Amino acid sequence: MTDSTPRHPRRGLAVPFVIVGLALAAWTGWWFWLTDQVETRLTAQVEVLRQDGWTVTHAPVTTTGWPFRTRVSMPQAVILAPSGHGVAAPELVAEASSWNPDHWVVVAPDGLTLTRADKGRIAVAGDGLRFSISHLRDRFPDLRAEMIRPTFTALEGAEPFPIASAEQIQLETRPHRTDGAASTDELDVLFRLVDARGRPGGPVEGATRQGRLSADVEATIVGASRLRGMDSAGVFSAWTAAGGRFVGVRGRLKAGDSTALISSDDLSAGPDGRLRGSLAVRAERPMAAIAGLAGSRSGAVNRAGAAGAAAATAATGERPVDLVIQFRDGRTWLGPFALAPAPRLF
Questions:
Q1: pTM for the whole structure
Q2: Residue 126's CB: how many other CB atoms inside 10 A?
């Protein structure tokens, strides 16, 4: 008796596996091509930096992450700009999605060391130290640097860092947009500092009365295309010489029990690299911060000037007061009182 049961071709069962295999082979080929491109461009960029006077050293680079990630590990990394500023880390790890190599995140899993020109090295540790860059094909990529619960320790021979620790530090830049379109030569900047503690005897500890300092400040950088060339003068030098400035400065500061809203329509830097311009301040309980500053042991603070400013603001009591802080002649002034050197950009 003949078996009349229909038989299905077995080769049909293999078709899905063949398709998956071909797709996996194609994806693997793409991944290896992408990692080769990443390594080649990294090597080329390091060489360009060295030719421009940078010091860049590292142990052999490894690339992992197949199939969905591209992960580049650079052990014993040292990156030092001609300006004297730089970083060093036991390991720097850069990672991107293999399907979106236009967005990279760089982390320092074991902390890093910041080198400040003429001021020495600072060891930085924390729960998260990362830097991200995206929209690489645009004129100005989006940049974001973030530190989660960082601590700062001055190494031997270094000047102390203004703060000892913080809950969060964040810095972001992105192209400025007007009516939805990106500006040709402007960048928006956001800086956020959350619950920072000053170093013992320093100006931050004095101004906060051993409390905490928080800041949210945003501004627009005009002439952003001039922010290039990390030469011995620093990245802000050519920008300043070309008329670069900060506009639309807005922010909120909290130092211990004192709070302030700040604003400025125009800030720039002088030939000495120090900030110049005026900052409008709407302050609540400013005397506490100014008096604390006057009592600090920092050599950078003009304690006599701070004491005079504290006495002048004492009459306001607990009422909010409008103040104007001026940056001129390399100093920070509150009315006729010089408080400290003006912040320095380069």
A1: 0.83
A2: 20
